[in-house]
Amino acid sequence: MSKNVVLITLDEVRPDHLSCYGYERIQTSNIDGVAKEGVRLETCITASNFTLPSHASILTGSYPPSHGLREAYTPIQKETLAEILKIHGYLTAAFIGNPALSSKLNFHRGFDYFEEHPPVDRYDGAFRVEVAEGENIALHQVRKAKGETFGNWWVRRAVEWIKNNRSRPFFVWGHIFDTHRIGEKRMFYNGWIKPGELSEFDYYDAKIKCVDERFIGELLNGLKELDLYDNTVLIIMSDHGTNLGEHPIPMGTFGESWGCTSPYPEHCTMYEHDIRVLCIIKDRDLPQGKVIEGITRTIDIVPTVLELLDINVPVKFDGTSLIPYVERGESPIEEAYIETLFESRNPGCLQAIRTKKYKFIRNLTHGVEALYDLENDPREVCNLLYNVENFTISLEERQTLLYNWRKKMNEMLIKGPPERKVDLAVKEEITKRLRQLGYLD
Question: Is the pTM of this model over 0.85?
Answer without folding.
Answer: yes
